């Protein structure tokens, strides 16, 4: 007679220095599955071998012993629950209680069961019906009650497949398998057990549960409780019809469960309750099936658990988000990164969270959240929030708006980083209108340029997307890259802009940074600089018609238009102290002049219209462009359109710095 034999391995015990977190669910998992397979009314297996926390030798020996003794018509089931690990070469291993990770996180392969061994042993078994169930992760475990899956490079079908096999996995290698605090079983095994024990994994009118039936049932349940998990089946076309268990026809509890699940799928369970008409129909069915009210309620609790579990996860995220907003608002990049990690660990999709996020932002902003703010939560792209200020002609704050920007972070050395902000491609009107205050400064005070329209004619320029430094290059960044700091204002200077740098110094920095990172860095073109500074505005400054010492670091003894007088700080300030523009760029007005790549031209007649630098071939000594003004500048010199020229080796006092570009028209 054909035999049904199962080998169940659960590994939850790991040495403290193993690099792996111990688990509670595997022992409960193999005990629960063992009981169901032994039950003559459910699994009816002839032999079930449970192997809790084996070492490598014991696991290999029992696998070989069990599957080597099977005959052609026998059914073999192998169930593993615990950590799964992928090594540096992409090969998959099942852990044992002896499994160790090296200090750098790599697996010690001699302490785990390689997939190739399992494939060879089970594949060489005479049994033609073989079912493999893996409730495990494909990567090192996360803390806080969660198991992580790997990066998607493990091919389970290739490594654990084979003729006459069917393989079920708890999740794809890209997602997370859950072990929730306080839950005796993993989310996958919980519904595996439920489907077999209650018989509800069997379709209506069917008295048995096949592998495919079980997969379909468990996947539907897991996707409800943890929507981003992806239970998978491999070789289902070869082994999906293998029968694993019996299901009793006419069982009143099974019928009531089926009705509950049908009503839920049809949308009759809303706001944490069944609609009244559905409730009445369920009560009638309960009476017809002779179920007590208490038993029916218990069945409802079991069936509704994944739905309520998902809702609990959404509420936990929403509560955390509200607390994070109360802790600090606007949210910084680190907060958004942590919230995105929380979403992944709770296995929630973007659609699950949109209402909760929108509600939290509405409560904070007292209006509907702009789409970019909502998107910043639901994107893996690093994003930060910031507050943009708009002023009236008197320099008083007229409006504050929360914005977001994408950025990437370049690691330099000794913990020093450099952030670059994504600047979207767009067309701008470059230069200033003829009636803008301060635009005729050269015509009045520089004889050689009298009558020359230095900031004109206004012209349209289309600038491709590029990435620009969030701040001027700081002293710490310059020191980390060049090994020196030429600045004058060095007291608490790490986050002050570097100054006393020539154009050639700035170019040398870009070249050195490019060599160190493998990406091409350069100075911005004059068109890129003005476009980035204006950030869609047409006013003299990106915050409005005037400037004040609360908005930038310049010589506050002077006013611009109807703006106020104020502070003259007489030195540079730390970057990022003043409000940014709508692109998320700081210190574009004042603090230090910033070098551009272009040669100086007396006007924009003949200037490029593609955002590239305007260069004169062979003119290595020609003067270069400075933009933005400095801490010593009058307000006129800090305007978005203002231009200054200086020899490439020139240094003006302690007022000249730069910021860098990656990508764009000049790359």
Describe the protein's architecture and organization.
- With 667 residues, the protein is of the alpha+beta class.
- It has four domains: 245 residues, Rossmann fold, CATH 3.40.50; 42 residues, no CATH class; 69 residues, no CATH class; 255 residues, paralog of FGE (formylglycine-generating enzyme).
- It has 17 helices and 27 strands.
- The strands form eight sheets. A six-stranded mixed β-sheet has the order 2-1-3-7-9-12, sandwiched between helices.
- A hairpin with a 5-residue loop joins β4 and β5.
- α2 packs parallel to α3 and α6 packs across α10.
- It is elongated and about 105 Å long.
Structural class comes to alpha+beta
Question: What is the second-level CATH architecture of the largest domain?
Answer: Alpha-Beta Complex
SS elements, strand count: 27
- How can the largest sheet be summarized? 6 strands, mixed
Share in β-strands: 15-25%
Which radius of gyration do the C-alpha atoms yield? 33 Å
Helix content: 25-40%
Strand arrangement within the widest β-sheet reads: 2-1-3-7-9-12
**Shape, principal axes of CA atoms:** elongated
**Count of all domains:** 4
CATH superfamily of the largest domain: paralog of FGE (formylglycine-generating enzyme)
């Amino acid at each position: 007679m054909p035999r049904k034999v199962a080998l169940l391995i659960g590994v939850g015990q790991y040495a403290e220095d193993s690099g792996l977190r111990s688990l509670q669910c595997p022992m409960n998992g193999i005990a629960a599955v063992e009981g169901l397979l032994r039950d003559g009314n459910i699994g009816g297996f002839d032999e079930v071998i449970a192997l809790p926390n084996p070492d490598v030798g014991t696991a290999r020996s029992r696998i070989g012993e069990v599957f080597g003794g099977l005959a052609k018509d026998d059914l073999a089931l192998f169930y593993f629950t615990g950590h799964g690990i992928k090594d540096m070469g992409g090969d998959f291993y099942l852990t044992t209680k002896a499994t160790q990770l090296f200090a750098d996180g790599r697996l010690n392969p001699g302490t785990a069961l390689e997939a190739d061994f399992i494939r060879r042993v089970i594949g060489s078994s005479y049994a033609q019906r073989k079912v493999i169930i893996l409730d495990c992760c494909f990567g090192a475990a996360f803390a806080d009650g969660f198991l992580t899956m790997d990066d998607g490079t493990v091919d389970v079908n290739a490594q654990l497949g084979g003729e006459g096999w069917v393989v079920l996995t708890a999740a794809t290698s890209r997602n997370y398998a859950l072990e929730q605090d306080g839950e005796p079983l993993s989310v996958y095994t919980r519904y595996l057990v439920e489907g077999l024990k209650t018989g509800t994994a069997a379709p209506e009118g069917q008295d048995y549960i096949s592998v495919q039936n079980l997969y379909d049932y468990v996947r539907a349940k897991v996707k409800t409780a943890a929507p981003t998990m992806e239970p998978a089946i491999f070789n289902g076309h070869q082994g999906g019809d293998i029968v694993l268990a019996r299901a009793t026809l006419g069982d009143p509890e099974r019928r009531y469960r089926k009705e509950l699940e049908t009503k839920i799928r049809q949308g009759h369970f809303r706001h944490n309750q069944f609609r009244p008409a559905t409730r009445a129909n369920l009560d009638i069915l309960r009476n017809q099936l002779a179920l007590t009210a208490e038993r029916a309620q218990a069945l409802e609790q079991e069936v509704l658990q994944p739905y309520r579990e998902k809702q609990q996860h959404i509420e936990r995220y929403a509560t955390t988000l509200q607390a994070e907003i109360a802790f600090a608002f606007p949210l910084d990049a680190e907060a958004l990164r942590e919230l995105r990690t929380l979403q992944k660990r709770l296995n929630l999709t973007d659609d699950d969270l949109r209402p909760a996020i929108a509600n939290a932002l509405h409560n904070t902003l007292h209006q509907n959240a702009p789409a970019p703010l909502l998107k910043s939560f639901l994107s893996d792209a690093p994003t930060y929030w910031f507050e943009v200020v708009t002023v009236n002609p008197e320099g008083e704050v007229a409006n504050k708006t929360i914005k977001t920007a994408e950025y990437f972070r370049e690691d330099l050395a000794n913990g020093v980083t450099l952030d670059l902000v994504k600047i979207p491609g767009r067309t701008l009107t470059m230069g200033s209108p003829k009636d803008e205050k301060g635009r005729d400064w050269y015509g009045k005070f520089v004889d050689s340029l009298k009558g020359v329209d230095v900031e004109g004619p206004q012209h349209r320029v289309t600038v491709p997307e590029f990435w620009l430094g969030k701040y001027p290059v700081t002293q710490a960044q310059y020191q980390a890259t060049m090994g020196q700091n030429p600045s004058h204002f060095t007291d608490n200077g790490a986050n002050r802009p570097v100054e006393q740098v020539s154009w050639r110094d700035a170019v040398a920095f870009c070249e050195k940074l490019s060599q160190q990172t493998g990406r091409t860095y350069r100075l911005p073109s004059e068109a890129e600089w003005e476009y980035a500074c204006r950030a869609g505005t047409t006013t003299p400054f990106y915050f409005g018609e005037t400037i004040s010492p609360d908005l930038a670091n310049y010589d506050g003894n002077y006013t611009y238009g109807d703006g106020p007088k104020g502070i003259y700080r007489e030195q540079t300030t730390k970057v990022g102290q003043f409000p940014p523009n709508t692109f998320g760029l700081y210190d574009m007005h004042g603090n230090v002049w910033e070098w551009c790549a272009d040669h100086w031209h007396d006007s924009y007649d003949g200037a490029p219209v593609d955002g590239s630098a305007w260069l004169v071939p062979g003119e290595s000594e020609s003067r270069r462009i400075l933009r933005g003004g400095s801490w010593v500048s009058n307000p006129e010199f800090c305007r978005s359109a203002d231009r200054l020229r200086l020899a490439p080796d020139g240094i003006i006092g302690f007022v000249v710095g730069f910021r860098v570009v990656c990508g764009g028209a000049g790359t």
